[in-house]
Amino acid sequence: MEYIHKCSRSSIDSRSYIFPLARNKLLARETTRMVEASSQPNIVVTLEPNAWSVFYFDINVANTGNAPAYNIEVNFDPPLTNAEHREARQHSIPFRKISILKNGQVLSSNLCDYNQIKGKTYTITISWSKKANSSERDFNQYEYDMTLFEGVTYLGARNPLTQIADQIKKIRDDWRPITQGSKKIKTDNYSSSDREKKE
After folding, report:
1. Can you tell me the distance from the alpha carbon of 72 to that of 94, in angstroms, rounded to the nearest whole number?
2. Measured between alpha carbons, how far is residue 166 from residues 49, 58, 108, 154 in Å?
3. Could you report the per-residue pLDDT of 123-134, keeping only the tens digit for each?
4. Are residues 143 and 49 in the same domain?
5. Residues 48 and 33 occupy one common structural domain
6. In angstroms, how far is CA 16 from the centroid of its own chain?
7. Model's pTM, two decimal places?
8. Which of 34, 73, 79, 92 is the most buried (most CB within 10 A)?
9. Cα angle value 175/179/180 (rounded, 5°)
10. Are residues 85 and 144 in the same domain?
């Protein structure tokens, strides 16, 4: 009986050692997994109205994740149509391939006139690597419906910086003729002798 009591006590002692050890290993493994999951790049591509004119659209590529992304490839189905001003300069669609995008970084470029993409629904497929020389790739695929922007109107500038720039441009345009001497400012000048006559 004493032997059984000693055996059960030693098994309890070993369990009290093994369970915390196993729990700590599990906790360490889950913590590592959570750290890896939280430090992931996530690439998102959108087509949005230009800050200066709602008739033109920009393509924006953003890394909304917490780590840099490498060797990014962006595909649109159906393919995007290049703007006439871009075709004339022999520019291709921007941001099809990007070597690196830091976390929080956004790349933006004018793309085309709204009429070229109006009413279309694009399937956007984005792929990237977590490391520069890795062949393992992550993917993000979603539909982007351009009918979202039909009938949308804006009053004034959507961005305060655009509004400030517009006001400064108006001031510059108002003062340009004066600084070039083509417009005179009417001023009433008084000298000290004029003041003496007035008194």
Report:
1. 12
2. 17, 20, 21, 16
3. 999 999 999 888
4. yes
5. no
6. 52
7. 0.64
8. 73
9. 115
10. yes
